[in-house]
Each structure stands twice: as C-alpha cells, then as structure tokens.
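Q&A log
Question type: sequence-to-structure
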Amino acid sequence: MKFLLVAVVILILAWRWRTARSTTLNQRAQPKTPPPATALSMVVCRHCGVHIPAPDAVRGAQGVYCSNAHRQLAEA
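Response status: OK
Response body:
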C-alpha cells in the first residue's frame, strides 16, 4: 500500500512539473506580435482615378492628384 501511495505522489508531482514546464516553454516560444499597422486613408486622383494614400497626394485647387503633372493638366 505504501508503494502505491508513493507511486501516485511521484506521478502527480511529475505531471505538475511537466505542465508547468510546458506552459513556460510555450510562453517563451510565442513571438511577440508587433502592434497592428494603422491604415492610411486613400484618396482618388481627380485626373486618372488612381487610389493613393492621402499623405502622398498632391493637393490642388480642384481636389487631390497623384502627381504634379496631373494637377497641372487638370487645372490648366
């Protein structure tokens, strides 16, 4: 009976040790995910209809354009 009790205690300790170890290994193995990139708002060129990010757009008197050439063509 003592042998059975000692065996059960050893098995429980081994099981607890393995689950604790696997949890710490999983936490280390998971790469830290970078924060999601923020989406840029898109605008449409009034001359050719191409969608471009708003910070890259060229502002004109009649709207936004994808380049200075299209702004000059549209506003000439």
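Response note: The radius of gyration is 32 Å.
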